[in-house]
Amino acid sequence: MSAVAGTAAAVQELDGDQLAALDACVVAALALSSTEGEAHRRMRLLMECHGRYVRSFGVLEQAPSYAVFARRLRGSRVADLLPGRPQGSVLGELWLLDDDGMPSSALHRLAVEASEHGHQAPGIGADIRHLHSLLRAVGVLPVSTGLSRISGETVQHAVFRALRAAGFEAYTRGREAMVRTPVLTRRVLSRNAALVELGAYTGISPTRQFGGLWAACPMCRWTMRATYRADGVVDLECEDERHGLLGARYWAEPTAAEGWRLAPCGELRSVPELLPVEGYVALPYALWLWVTLPGLLEVELRDRLVALGAEVRLWPFGDAYDLHVGRPGLSRAWRVDVKTWADPYGLAQKLREDPEGSGELCFVVPEHLRGYLPLLRRVVRGSGARVLTDADLVAEVEGA
């Protein structure tokens, strides 16, 4: 079971002081692990974070000094950094920075899901500000509203609604591009009027480039995170925890003759091409997380079900749900909404907004999130909707 995928649910269980402390820790960890910008600005941001962190502890619990605060950000479990140390949470399984100060796969996720001040941080802050501008442009957020606690459902709905305004063909083409090509050349992007109007793509983040270059994850084709080490070597890894575990991990070192040499660290022995940052644009982190990743599972599910003889329509009614599945000769149909994260709040929001009612709606999560089924099923209890894994759905359709 992926602990990172459960951060949205875990954050909802925190009280106000714990949320404030988490926000301070996330932004401080981003500042500590970044070389972007001027050092004195990062130090000022760190001191501001420590001030907010101290205030979150109130008068009944002793807050650590700045030196202890900065030291604990490396290698400490997230739950252990918070007032009251919440028990039984996936935050007890995650850390922000490893012992060497390198960012974890949870850090950027928490920056968009739980941070009130993530837009101030170096690196991911640019992605958050871009997303905030996009959501304001499509009328989802008032100008004065912060980005904290914006759910994946909200982002998906806003983006897909804006694409639908250009017509169903433009909607389908734009959504498919965001799934299959989360990085585009500026020239290719210019040919898709709906995506240009939406403004979803932006320059490649400094956190995912090095020496004017970037590399795509072989699995999702998005930009891999680039982390400089003290010896000048750059670690490259997909932001998706599972992709990294499956082998989307590399290291790059500068060479006098060849520029940069890229070598694999994981099971994948093929090496992606290093491409220039100039001339390319990419989806920001949140759109990759909430549009590209679930979209890849949607397309994969369609292909698996079609291979079984099922009749499948992908994105049949805009963003009402993702797959309409039937079997020849059967009256039964499956309305499938794919989720690649475990967010009870987002699930409840989806149930409220479903224009056809929630009866017979199937929320499908990837098999590696099976451990979250009991939590998600409690949310949909009594609604007529169901929650199952992709493997469960395939078996059910095959056996119908």
Which class do the helix and strand fractions yield? Answer: alpha+beta
Overall strand count = 14
Q: Kindly, what is the distance between the CA atoms of the first and last residues, rounded to a whole number of angstroms?
A: 28 Å
Which regions are unreliable across 5 or more consecutive residues at pLDDT < 50?
none
**Order of helices and strands, N to C?**
HHHHHHHHEHHEEEEHEEEEHEEEHEHEH
Provide a descriptive summary of the structure in words.
The protein has helices at residues 7-12, 16-32, 39-56, 66-72, 105-113, 124-137, 152-164, 168-180, 186-190, 193-198, 241-245, 285-307, 344-353, 373-380, 390-399; strands at 183-185, 202-203, 213-214, 225-228, 234-237, 249-255, 259-264, 275-276, 280-282, 311-314, 323-326, 333-338, 361-365, 386-389. The protein is an alpha+beta fold. The protein folds into 4 domains: 4-122, no CATH class; 132-203, no CATH class; 210-276, no CATH class; 286-399, Restriction Endonuclease (3-Layer(aba) Sandwich), CATH 3.40.91. The strands form 4 sheets. The protein has a 5-stranded mixed sheet. The protein has a 4-stranded antiparallel sheet with strand order 4-5-6-7. Helix 13 (344-353) packs parallel to helix 14. The radius of gyration is 21 Å and the shape is globular.
Summarize the structure in short.
The protein is built from 15 helices and 14 strands.
Task: State the main characteristics.
400 residues, alpha+beta, 4 domains, five-stranded mixed beta sheet, four-stranded antiparallel beta sheet, 15 helices
